[in-house]
C-alpha cells in the first residue's frame, strides 16, 4: 500500500518528511536539539497529534545510531540521577495529553524551551571557561542533584507531549559543563532509553498504529545518511561553536512552537 496515498500527502510533503528524518539522524550525532526543526516539519505535514507517533520510531532509529557512535562517552552517574525524574515527567506528560489541545501544548513547550535557552546562556556567560572536563563533577553536588531532577521532569514532560525533550536536556547537559563527546554520548543513551519507554504510552494514546508504522518504514532509510553526515561533521566543530549551535537550535525550536 502506498504510504503517501494512505496519509493523503503530496510528493513535496513526503520529501519534506524525508528531509526531516535525515535531519533527525544529523542531530543525534552532531547538533542535539536541531531535531526541533524536524518536529515542526512533521507537525506541519501531518495532523499535530499523529505526527508525534510517526516521529517517535524515527527518533529511536537515530538514537540507536548515536549510541553505536558515542557509546564510550556516556556519563552513567548523570543518567542514573535523571531517569527517576524523567519517569515522573513522562507520566505528567501523558496526563497532560489527555486533556490539552494542540495550542496549549505548543505554547507551553515553546515557552519552556526559550526559558531554558535563556537560563543556559546566562549561566555560560558567568562560566570561567568552556574548556571544562568531558564528565562534569558538578552533578554530584546537592545543587547538581536538584538541577538534574528539575530538568529531568521537564525533559520527560516535553518528550512525551511533543518529542521535544532534546532541547531541554541539551540545556541541562550544557549547563552541567559537559564537553562535546560526553554530551553526545550521554544524550544518546538517555534518549534511546526514554524514547523506547514512551512507545507503550504512545500506543495506548493511539499515536502509534499500523498507518504510522507504515510511513515510518518509508522514512527510516533517510535517518542513516543523516547520522553519517553528523558523525563526520562533529569532529570539525569546535566546542564553542558546538554550544552556540545547540542553543540556537533550541531557540529556533521554541519560537517555531510559539508561532505555529
Quick recap of the structure?
The protein is mostly helical and 260 residues long.
Cα-atom Rg, whole angstroms? 17 Å
Percent of residues in beta strands: under 5%
Structural class: mainly alpha
Let me know the number of strands.
0
Walk me through what this model shows:
The chain has helices at residues 3-7, 11-29, 35-45, 48-70, 76-99, 102-126, 142-162, 165-175, 180-204, 210-219, 223-234, 239-259. Helix 4 packs antiparallel against helix 9. The protein has twelve helices and no strands. With 260 residues, it is mainly α. The protein is globular, with a radius of gyration of 17 Å.
Which terms summarize this structure?
globular, mainly alpha
What's the layout of helices and strands?
Elements (H helix, E strand, L loop, with lengths): L2 H5 L3 H19 L5 H11 L2 H23 L5 H24 L2 H25 L15 H21 L2 H11 L4 H25 L5 H10 L3 H12 L4 H21 L1
Amino acid at each position: 500500500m502506498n504510504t503517501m496515498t494512505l496519509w493523503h500527502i503530496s510528493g513535496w510533503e513526503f520529501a519534506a518528511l524525508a528531509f526531516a528524518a535525515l535531519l533527525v539522524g544529523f542531530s543525534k550525532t552532531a547538533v542535539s536539539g536541531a531535531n526541533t526543526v524536524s518536529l515542526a516539519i512533521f507537525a506541519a505535514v501531518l495532523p499535530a497529534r499523529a505526527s508525534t507517533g510517526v516521529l517517535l520510531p524515527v527518533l529511536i532509529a537515530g538514537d540507536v545510531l548515536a549510541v553505536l557512535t558515542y557509546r564510550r562517552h556516556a556519563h552513567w552517574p548523570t543518567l542514573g540521577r535523571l531517569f527517576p525524574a524523567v519517569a515522573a515527567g513522562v507520566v505528567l506528560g501523558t496526563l497532560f495529553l489527555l486533556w490539552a489541545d494542540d495550542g496549549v501544548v505548543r505554547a507551553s513547550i515553546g515557552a519552556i524551551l526559550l526559558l531554558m535557552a535563556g537560563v543556559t546562556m546566562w549561566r555560560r556567560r558567568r562560566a570561567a571557561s568552556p574548556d571544562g572536563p568531558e564528565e562534569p563533577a558538578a552533578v554530584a553536588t546537592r545543587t547538581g542533584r536538584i538541577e538534574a531532577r528539575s530538568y529531568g521532569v521537564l525533559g520527560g514532560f516535553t518528550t512525551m507531549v511533543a518529542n521535544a525533550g532534546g532541547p531541554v536536556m541539551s540545556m541541562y547537559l550544557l549547563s552541567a559543563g559537559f564537553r562535546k563527546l560526553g554530551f553526545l554520548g550521554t544524550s544518546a543513551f538517555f534518549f534511546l532509553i526514554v524514547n523506547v519507554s514512551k512507545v507503550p504510552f504512545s500506543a495506548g494514546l493511539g499515536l502509534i498504529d499500523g498507518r504510522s508504522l507504515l510511513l515510518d518504514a518509508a522514512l527510516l532509510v533517510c535517518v542513516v545518511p543523516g547520522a553519517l553526515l553528523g558523525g563526520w561533521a562533529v569532529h570539525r566543530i569546535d566546542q564553542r561553536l558546538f554550544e552556540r549551535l545547540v542553543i540556537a537550535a533550541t531557540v529556533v525550536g521554541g519560537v517555531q512552537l510559539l508561532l505555529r
